[in-house]
Amino acid sequence: MGVALTVVPSCTDTWNEHYATEDIYTAKETIWETIESRGDMQNFAELMKLAKFYRDENHPAYTINEQGEREYYTYAKLLDGYTAVTVWAFTDDALSEDEWNKWKDMAINDGYNFQQQFIGNHMSLARRPMTFTGVQSEKVRLVNNKLAELDYAESTFANVKVVEANIGTSNGLMHIIEKPSEFDYNIYEYIKFSNVDYLSKFSEYFVKRDTTYFLASSSIEGLPDENGNPTYVDSVYFMDNMNFRISSYNPTDADATDAWMNNLKMMKAHVNVEDSAYIVVIPTDQAWDAAVSKLTPYYNYVSTYPRMDKLKQENARSTKNMSILGARKAYMTTDGSAYETVDSLRDVNITMDIATPMAFNLNEQPQLEKGVKWTMEDFLLNSGYLECEYLLNTLGDTIFNIAKDPQHRGCDLSVLFAGVQKKMSNGYVIEASTWNVPEDIWNRAIDVECTFNDYYKSSATLYAINPMNNTTAKSWIDKYGRLSMQNYMHCYGTGTSTKPDIAFPLAGSKQGSAYAMSGQRYNIKVVMVPRWYEDSQDTPIFYKVNTETNPETGELDTLSIEYQHNLMTFTLYYWTEAMIAKNDYRYTAQQKLEKKDVYWNGEKVDTITVFENVEFPVTYKNLRNTYPILRMQSQGYTRGKCPCEKNNDPHHSTYFNIDRIILEPVK
């Protein structure tokens, strides 16, 4: 706005062509001179003299006079200048004395918000006559970036009656309206400026991510200082907030030495943009405190974690570790403060996970009818969202509607949007007295696709990835099990006596990032794949399904299937605070649960529960390059007779196939 108001020239010729009006462009007086000459606008004139012109909320514009004093640029000077503007003003009788005094106090003590809520709400760049003949109404952008409707047929500005229109001046137009136009906060302005005391904690979190930038290219450079550095006689700034743009940020070692530490999540919602449509659920301070108490046990950090890089873990003993103490996070806080304790790391991650997941862009929600976009009235006010199978927040999380989802996933969406609804200029704020983020968003199941994740291997084991051929397999795949991604990890030994093993980091999810957390019990499951599922054109197929149909049943003759049967040993490794004093950080040197042998008969795709009610002593929440490890090993030919009734082979196979690993939170 600051740049525009000082560079936009008079647009008389252009606007004469665009509008069919009487000649209102030959006046000699400026808007300011016109206001001063009227006897019924003295209060308005006083406000224009008091109001400083702000480049941004922290920088009123000024010049330095001969005495070296600052002379602030006021709106009285702007309205007496050359920039073409339109002002919708009002006379002294439009407001009571108390109302005028309220605005005067704001002009003196809160100049930026006075500019945005009063002056900026009644001013537009260029000339805007109220006699446009092309359409009945149109929207114009005001200098506070709001959109106001001009209704030419009804002669209204933002639904306020225009009582005197098209007062021509040398530098624009003035219209007299019967009362001030009501100012509507946008969502960002409401969070920052409304000063609602019961929303202070969310507001503090959000506003802390504000950053003001100096825009040298738009500033006017003065004489250099004594060291030859440029100085500026007119400086331009702009403000940005991390919540507007960043959904996740994985810093590199070039950004910070502790770049392993945090996946930074912000709301990724442009809630400052006027022509958007957002719904943001804001927890009250009471709800915020309750959420912090609820989440604290899940964020039990320790000062040091092992770095679980694949290369480090597969080589000889690694002493690589990562200390969070003193970790500087300038990209997270405006003051660049350091996390000196594990409590500070816990606090910043809890508040990030409370504040970011409850913003919804109306235009990104699923349509009930193809090509029919939601209106805010139908979606929110008339509860149309209850008909959706799911909603999408601005982070891309899918929030399922438990009443509509075929798999009965998700939550009650009416609870999700429970609270006091308040209309903003670019959507709605819902003030929630409880923090209703669904648990499957902040406490997700960890779903590890074994094909696509890093794995750790021993020197005696080889691995291959075998794709599933759906065309060849379609006659039996539904009967014996379908894989999540139609591929899997194939593990086999180098000889008949080898016990092949493989280990996977327990990180990942189909629904976004998921982490093993402290204070949460998990059931750990492994999805095993039959050996005869392999269908490769390049290698011999050792186990095949009989594709002949039984004439009596019409089904495949399953008795002719040669089964792969395994005895598997599973071991879970995880980190404890006691391990900090150790000098070996390989996963095999970390804490482990008691090993568990699990027999599997290899008849079909099977989900095997390996461990139940496992609870990790420390959290891995929002950490990078560190996670618990699940190791699995086939016992091969060293065990006794197979209990499988369909195969009397006394030996267990050394081969095994893994589709995925699931850590399922115990609710």
Short description:
The protein has 667 residues and is α+β, with helices and mostly antiparallel strands. It starts with a helix and ends with a strand.
Structure write-up:
- The structure is a single chain.
- By secondary structure, this protein is an alpha+beta fold.
- The protein has 18 helices and 37 strands.
- It has a seven-stranded mixed sheet with strand order 6-5-11-10-9-8-7, with no helix packed on it. Strands 26, 28, 29, 31, 35 and 37 form a six-stranded antiparallel sheet that branches.
- It is elongated.
- The protein starts with a helix and ends with a strand.
Essential attributes:
7-stranded mixed sheet, elongated, about 675 residues, 6-stranded antiparallel sheet
Structural class: alpha+beta
- The number of E-state strands comes to 37
Mean pLDDT: 82
> Residue share in helices?
10-25%
Biggest sheet, strands in spatial order? 6-5-11-10-9-8-7
The low-pLDDT segments are 6-22, 253-257, 536-547, 556-561, 638-642, 644-648
Strand content bin: 25-35%
Shape: elongated
Largest sheet: 7 strands, mixed
Tell me the Rg in angstroms: 34 Å
Secondary-structure blueprint of this entry?
Blueprint: H1 2-7, H2 12-18, H3 31-37, H4 42-50, E1 54-56, E2 59-60, E3 62-64, E4 70-72, H5 75-78, E5 85-89, H6 97-109, H7 111-119, E6 123-125, E7 137-141, E8 147-151, E9 156-157, E10 160-169, E11 172-177, H8 187-193, H9 200-207, E12 210-214, E13 220-221, E14 232-234, E15 237-241, H10 242-245, E16 278-283, H11 285-295, E17 304-306, H12 310-314, E18 321-323, E19 327-328, E20 338-339, H13 342-355, E21 359-361, H14 376-381, E22 390-392, E23 398-400, H15 413-416, E24 420-424, E25 427-432, H16 439-442, E26 446-449, E27 456-457, E28 461-467, H17 470-473, H18 477-480, E29 487-493, E30 501-505, E31 521-529, E32 566-574, E33 591-592, E34 596-600, E35 606-615, E36 629-634, E37 656-665
Parallel strand pairs: 5-11, 16-25
Antiparallel strand pairs: 1-2, 3-4, 5-6, 7-8, 8-9, 9-10, 10-11, 12-15, 13-14, 16-21, 17-18, 19-20, 22-23, 24-25, 26-37, 27-30, 28-29, 29-37, 30-36, 31-35, 31-37, 32-33, 32-34, 32-36
Helix pairs in contact: 4-6, 6-7, 11-13
